[in-house]
Design goal:
Elements (H helix, E strand, L loop, with lengths): L5 H17 L5 H15 L4 E8 L2 E9 H8 L12 H20 L5 H19 L5 H7 L37 E6 L2 E7 L5 E3 L3 E2 L2 E6 L11 E3 L6 E2 L12 E3 L6 E2 L12 E2 L6 E2 L12 E4 L4 E2 L9 E4 L2
Parallel strand pairs: 4-7, 5-8, 7-9, 8-10, 9-11, 11-13, 12-14, 13-15, 14-16
Antiparallel strand pairs: 1-2, 3-4, 6-7
Helix pairs in contact: 1-2, 1-5, 2-4, 2-5, 4-5, 5-6
């Protein structure tokens, strides 16, 4: 099932790998919680026609999303023709259960449970994207040692990973300090930012490849106040800057085509002009920006519902 686009799937794999290797002093329980959070990022992409039970009868549900769609399509005795294997739902619910035990009961988990959590997430990403689990991600749970230790002997059913594993995302001396990215066939996707600067200028290219996309939730909760985007940028993913309450100024590029749902919700933008290249703007993309009094855009740009705050005036320049 290819619900999740390839670029996003690879970004989720990268975040999984980053959590495993670069979690610093995180406890393994904290990393398991993060794996469950990454699983939650898949849900906005999973949608379609599903079914639910009413009066003991299955009835269709149009535009079911996330958990509603997954549970409505999971195979069972009552739903033998479901399109989602029961084991996929079981994987996701088990990772949720692990999160619940840690969050609410402060349970501690062993390394076998930790490796299982990584595998649950990786195989869920693979199922909903069709993108195979990268070898370096498989290495986390196929005989891998705890992060920071020497390679372990193979566990039952696994193999020992190579001593040095190559991340599928990285930083570069040519990009601002703390900017995290990954390479996809069309260019570079920005997937995160760990820097402390309040002003960020995202470069047009990294390692010779154009920066084409900002991944979903890449800058979520950052303290940035000003961001300048590169002219090469085509897409800003859902929730990319939600809710960056300090963000006041953005410079959108002339070739931008898509802005996802909630992309800049809850920011503090003062003014906004959308480029004529922009094809669509997602639901609530600029809502909850109380200081944004007017927006300038083309009539050819398709707006979803409630894109702007209720007091924001929309003015067209064509």
């Amino acid at each position: 099932m290819n619900f999740v686009p390839e670029g996003y799937a690879r970004a989720f794999y990268a975040e999984l790998l980053s959590t495993h290797h670069d979690g610093g002093a995180w406890r393994k329980e904290d990393k398991i919680k993060k794996y469950r959070d990454i699983q939650g990022k898949l849900l906005p992409y999973i949608k379609g026609k599903s079914r639910k039970v009413e009066n003991r009868q299955w009835v269709p549900v149009d535009n079911a999303e996330g958990w509603q769609y997954i549970r409505g399509q999971a195979r069972s005795d009552r739903n033998p023709n479901g399109t989602i294997p029961a084991v996929v739902l079981a994987r996701m619910e088990l990772l949720n259960a692990m999160w619940n035990d840690i969050q609410h009961h402060h349970d501690e988990f062993g390394w076998d449970d930790y490796f299982l959590a990584a595998r649950l997430l990786a195989e869920t990403i693979m199922f909903f994207s069709g993108v195979p689990v990268p070898p370096e991600v498989r290495g986390i749970y196929e005989g891998a040692a705890p992060p920071g230790s020497s390679p372990a002997q193979p566990r039952a059913g696994g193999t020992t990973p190579p001593p040095a594993q190559t991340a599928i995302f990285t930083t570069s001396s040519k990009s601002p300090d703390g900017l995290q990215w990954m390479k996809i066939p069309t260019g570079i996707v920005i997937i995160g930012y760990t820097g402390t600067e309040t002003t960020l200028v995202i470069p047009d290219s990294i390692d010779g490849h154009p920066v084409v996309e900002i991944a979903p939730e890449a800058f979520c909760d950052s303290k940035l106040e000003r961001v300048e985007f590169p002219e090469s940028l085509k897409k800003i993913g859902h929730g990319a800057f939600y809710p960056c309450g300090n963000l006041q100024v953005i410079s959108l590029p002339p070739n931008l085509e898509f802005i996802g749902d909630y992309a800049f919700q809850g920011c503090n933008l003062q003014s906004l002009s959308l480029p004529p290249s922009l094809k669509s703007v997602g639901y609530y993309a600029f809502n909850d920006n109380a200081q944004l009094k007017a927006v300038y855009l083309s009539r050819n740009t398709q707006l979803d519902s409630e894109v702007f705050y209720e007091d924001t005036a929309v003015e067209y320049y064509d």
